[in-house]
Amino acid sequence: YIINVNAQQGKKISPYLFGLFFEDINYAADGGLYAEMVQNRSFEYAPADTPQWHSLTSWEYVKQVFSYGSLNIETNNPIHLNNPHYVVLDIQHVGKHATGEYSDIPENKGTPGVGIKNLGYDAMIVKAGEHYDFSMFARQISGKPMSFVVSLQGTDGKILVEDKIIIDSKDWKKYTTTLTASENSDSASLLVLGTSKGKLAIDVVSLFPQNTFKNRKNGLRADLAQLLADMKPAFVRFPGGCLVHGDGTNNMYRWKHTVGPIEQRVEQKNLWGYHQTMGLGYFEYFQFCEDIGAKPVPVLPAAVSCQNSGGTWRIGGTGQQALPMEDMEAYIQEVLDLVEWANGSATSKWGSIRAATGHPEAFNLEFIGIGNEDKITPEFQERFNMITQAVKAKYPEIQLIGTSGPFSDGEDFEKGWAIANKNNLPLVDEHYYKQPEWFLSNLNRYDSYDRKKPGVYLGEYASWGNKLKNAIAEAAYMTTLERNADIVKMASYAPLFAKKNHTQWTTDMIFFDNKEYSLTPNYHVQKMFSTNYGDTYYKNIISTEKDTTLSASCLKDNKTGDIILKMVNTGVESKNMKVNLSKFKNFIPDAEQITLTGDAEAENTLENPTHIVPKNSNTKVSKSFDYIAPPMSLTVIRIKTK
Ligand code: AHR
């Protein structure tokens, strides 16, 4: 039956509250979401990344069956000045298979030749029947064509697939082939083996599964990208985080270094202690946003670096570095050029560069963050003012996001807000990582924010931990973000990804290795909110009886007509909540329910990834009903209307 009652107006809320924050931390990009399987494909690893790294990290020099030659790293005639290092192989002798009693000696096995083998990021995972796109740039030096065998090898060098290529060009040329694995392997490697004498240069050796997300070339790992798509995020903020401002002016993230052919991108040290190939660059970020229907939110440096620059991350250094004033005109132009690159016509200077990459249509960039958690020094303020004023003058339609430091309050927080107010920016980025108890004692934080001031983008937040109790504390807090979503316009949990054995930040949303992933309870909470959002907030629908362990919110999505109830119990006992739907017209009593509940200390791991998962069920609602919220739970009830 259908209940008809008078509707009352709710509060209009932000259309894009829940999104994602992606940073290349914890091997989130290279070795993670970015599907490239070859590690150090361009031989650009260096001790600056991490002291023991060099041009041949993750590579082995291979000489099979009494073959010999030499391998050198050279820089005098690279594919591009942005990509200086490459391998020169001089193959002086290719042996012959031994026969008879000598043929069982390990050195006699395999195809005779000299080459290089890539070990991937902790080895490569290959699947039987799947196709892999191999490519490499090569240049003949000794004047005659050279034959190569490219193979995927499993354990003990077992050949899973191989193909031949002939290197015949005297200039750098891209050689490609497709490899189809004959069987599964979790410990595969890629061997590029020269099987004839001669000398040549090799660079940008690459291997991608054809099965990337949406089958994009230079694409993303399909399973991990799908997890993000499943969340239906309203936006994606990228590429960081501290990664953006870098730990010195030389290490800032410069968007122009990350677009164009991969062999021309400027690789650099990742301040989290590894290396960025920039293979996942601005084009790929924007393309991914478009593919999943999320607004792109790039963050650009405010022309200053981290206050800990020059030292080990977070252990102090010589201090913030600022771009010299004489470089600011060019830097501001770089910021302005991003808008033209993203939104300009295909005939504009920068729009044509986007179009040449295969995207003539504009990307519809609406937001740009300026700065990340910077110390609000006079140097910062001067540069921040210059950048924001230039963007506002040329592109008043762009919503600029200011920055307010790493804490929920304090000196930089106040100063960051003050400068954003002064510049009349639409949004300010707040960040805080706290204990779950902090979230539960700050459920009123945004109730008193001045609605005449800039809106809030809660760009990074998490309670310390990935146990259910952390996720449920965040869920309680998120109901208050919905309640205040007239002033809190956007929010994103952080960090997003963490790779097993390569984690610099221990509380994260998704843990993964080369093969599998584990979704934290925090992921499930984020997804339950982002896939059950609306456009209007209604107060006084769910009574929590002033019990501080209970939180709730009620939204309506006027596109679908659905009423969405969220009920959170952070306590250890079941609690009753009273729901009064008499404000709503024409709702259908048969509703869908999703419940996440369990032991407060429970968590998911790669070994047991489904210990804590949301359960779907059907329920019946009426004009007025009681809901018994299980201990430590988030419940979403979605009610259809006619
Ligand atoms: O999310 C991890 C880090 O936390 C981000 O890089 C930085 O913005 C914050 O300090």
TrEMBL record:
Keyword line: Hydrolase, Signal
Catalytic activity: Hydrolysis of terminal non-reducing alpha-L-arabinofuranoside residues in alpha-L-arabinosides
EC number: 3.2.1.55
Pfam families for this protein: Alpha-L-AF_C, ASD1_dom, CBM_4_9
Domain spans labelled Alpha-L-arabinofuranosidase C-terminal: 459-633
Keyword Ion transport listed: no
Top-rank EC class of the record's enzyme: hydrolase
MF terms (GO), sorted A to Z: alpha-L-arabinofuranosidase activity
GO biological process, one term: L-arabinose metabolic process
SUPFAM superfamilies in the record: (Trans)glycosidases, Glycosyl hydrolase domain
Family of this protein: Belongs to the glycosyl hydrolase 51 family.
Protein name as catalogued: non-reducing end alpha-L-arabinofuranosidase
Origin organism lineage: Bacteria, Pseudomonadati, Bacteroidota, Flavobacteriia, Flavobacteriales
